[in-house]
Design goal:
The chain is of the alpha+beta class and 143 residues long. The chain contains three helices and six strands, in the order αββββαββα. The radius of gyration is 14 Å and the shape is globular.
């Protein structure tokens, strides 16, 4: 498997987007569009907690999960109407439904490689950013 992209490089990329603000007051880094910090469009989670242990983030210090909130159509194009067929939430460099928030059209990827980030993840971040910035319709669960 290719080496994982450094989470600091992903953070730098996200922070380079116009209007993005970061909250690092918890072990999870939240990326918001605008100063209101209404709802993150991307998060980087670095440790397990009581509600979310599926990705086994505590297995090594460098393990992290990049989470991206998408629109319903994109999510369904990726995974169909369901949240996939029993995905391996601990697999590295593989796009999966978010283990907790997949029902609200969030996807996740653990330690993406540089190639995966460039070819698969960046376009998804662009969609999430556009939704947060109001350039695309917001995510809804009743569409």
């Amino acid at each position: 498997m290719a080496a994982a992209m450094d989470k600091a490089a992903i953070t730098a990329y996200l922070e380079s987007l116009d209007g993005v603000e970061t909250d690092t007051t918890t072990p999870t880094t939240f990326f918001f569009y605008g100063s209101e910090h209404k709802f993150p469009f991307v998060t980087i989670k670095t440790c397990d907690d009581d509600l979310d242990r599926a990705s086994r983030l505590d297995r090594a210090p460098e393990t992290y999960r990049l989470n991206i909130g998408l629109g319903k159509a994109t999510y369904q194009a990726l995974f169909g109407g369901a949240a996939g067929n029993d995905p391996d939430f601990a697999a590295l460099d593989r796009l999966i439904p978010h283990p907790v928030y997949g029902k609200t059209y969030w996807v996740a990827i653990l330690c993406p490689s540089h190639n995966t980030f460039q070819t698969m993840v960046k376009p998804l971040i662009t969609e999430a950013y556009d939704i947060a910035a109001g350039k695309r319709p917001a995510r809804t669960t009743n569409q």
